[in-house]
Amino acid sequence: xxxxxxxxxxxxxxxxxxxxxxxxxxxxxxxxxxxxxxxxxxxxxxxxxxxxxxxxxxxxxxxxxxxxxxxxxxxxxxxxxxxxxxxxxxxxxxxxxxxxxxxxxxxxxxxxxxxxxxxxxxxxxxxxxxxxxxxxxxxxxxxxxxxxxxxxxxxxxxxxxxxxxxxxxxxxxxxxxxxxxxxxxxxxxxxxxxxxxxxxxxxxxxxxxxxxxxxxxxxxxxxxxxxxx
Length: 229
Ligand code: ADP
Ligand code: ADP
Fold this sequence. Notes:
This protein is an alpha/beta fold. 34% of the residues lie in helices and 27% in strands. The longest helix has 14 residues, at 113-126. The structure holds adenosine-5'-diphosphate (2 copies).
């Protein structure tokens, strides 16, 4: 089944700047892929259309075969439960513990305390952060902070995780660790779409790559094509 479909999507920002031009692609459930391109190519815009921070000017974005154009008002929050988002600067609450940061999305949807505790601890274990639940984000290393950002995004068990330059602030070793973590998500049922301008890192992952060039989908490279290089 298709988890995400862009159907001839264009996005023109107020003021006339065209950020995406007639972009079409499909993501299958359980797939991991990258979107790359130079700065300003439209990567962030593409992700924003998926978590409904922006709306297309033309064309349709379908999520689990539902047209996001019809998702308005209260339903936007419901949709966002299905889409986990990881930012480059992780955006953790600095005055709340690691546990609270990860629990927040579950508290907001009214989950029972016991269930929240179980879920948060399970995610922390999986990410190798079991000892860290009482720490404040500022007491953690950059790599640990980014892992907390990922934990918060996956704790709701979203169908799709989107990440915008998630390794932008990390050194190559930590970047590789974070990428390995993303690569483990599809087998747990979460598809993964990562925007990155780090072409070297992207190629090493040997996953499908969408290449944006000035808002145009210039290439859609399969893992098999990358393996040939
Ligand atoms: P190679 O060095 O193996 O020839 P390239 O880096 O030239 O590979 O290109 C591989 C793919 O990545 C091509 O499809 C190309 O369009 C894309 N690409 C090349 N440079 C960039 C870039 N700066 N940003 C995004 N995509 C790029
Ligand atoms: P990338 O993530 O690849 O760097 P973006 O999606 O951020 O690209 O931006 C694509 C283009 O759209 C850029 O030219 C950028 O300046 C423009 N853009 C992005 N956001 C806005 C906005 N809110 N208003 C106007 N133009 C924007």
